[in-house]
Amino acid sequence: MSSHYQIVIIGGGNAGLSVASQLLLKRSNLEIAIIEPSEKHYYQPAWTLVGAGVYDINKTVKKEKDFIPKGTTWIKEAVTKFEPQLNTVVCTNGKKISYDFLIVCPGIQLDWEKIKGLKETLGKNNVSSNYSFEFAPKTWEFIKNFEGGTAIFTNPKGAIKCGGAPHKVMYLAVDYWRKKGILDKCDVHYLSGGSIIFGIKEYAKTLDEVVKRGNIKTHFKVDVTEIDGDKKIAYYEQENSSGQVERKSIPFDLCHAVPPQSAPDFIKKSPLTNLTIPLGYVDVDKYTMQHNVFSNVFSLGDSSSAPCGKSGAAIRKQAPVVVANVLSILDNKQPTAKYDGYAACPIPTQYGKLMLAEFDYSNTPKMSFPIDQAKPRWSMWILKTKVLPWLYWNKILKGTA
Known about the structure:
The chain has 9 helices and 21 strands. By secondary structure, the protein is α/β, with parallel strands linked by helices. Strands 1, 2, 5, 6, 7, 8 and 19 form a 7-stranded mixed β-sheet that branches. A 5-stranded parallel β-sheet has the order 10-17-11-12-13, covered by helices on one side. The chain has a 3-stranded antiparallel β-sheet with strand order 14-15-16, with no helix packed on it. α1 (14-26) packs parallel to α8.
């Protein structure tokens, strides 16, 4: 196996495979290596639907090898160290791989341990999380069997992948309980590290109505720190009017929890980040996706510092920018392609209706369809449940969408 490649891509998820495929479509003779330890590839956007009982979890996982682009080399290892001054990375087996260009996109790290007791109680005591392949089906089991009581849905502070997921499942659960005729027996609470329900006012207006209709109690600027599954108590911290942090608790009968998230540890301790980057993400120019120090390094997707929504939709717009700029530098030209911060968040407000929120860095709606996308629609539900999964497996990973 060669130890030098023109382009080394860290991560074989959506971002890594999309970029590799698009690069080869532009120039089939490029020498590209993809470093990815997992033999499985997951379509995570469907896990909310799994947790709501409308999607089969087994349809969200396929073999990684079936999507590695022909013409690339798959190095089935994990990276432990970056040496950008030497244009090398070090793998778990100690092997050094050198490169002309490095593209970093290993995704985001789920910090389950930052909520005390959460990892131990997942899948038990009516505590679950759609952020886990193993436990997303449990979410549906708990929602379906719920007969009333206090249900809490948590959303951590800081950036997370698929930022709408913590409340998507809540709206579907409330709709299910309404149809089951038990909503009047349900006391639903949303504990969020954010300050509002959604950052773009046009879409927030719709969600405020959904919250009101479901009689959901919202708690903003809170930090869930512990979940005692046996006693069914969640503990959180919240500033009082004097600015002092108070520890509070709420007993629950059902809990959907979302872990805090950050850059993978091997990036946090690398020269690719710096102390000014919250949670250790790769330090890039938010428009060109080029590293701010090492000009032959790029990053996209959830591990980059670009201050956008961390979503597959963002990756779909970032990938062509990275591809164009890498090829420009390869041709001794300046990187001129720019990413505008586009991200999308498909938010189901009830079974059969979905609001497709699209926006950019300026928090301006960027609607793709000639309709008011702030209004939940059946057509957008079909897009989410049928069209997007097919596009992902058949077009996006192959670089053709």
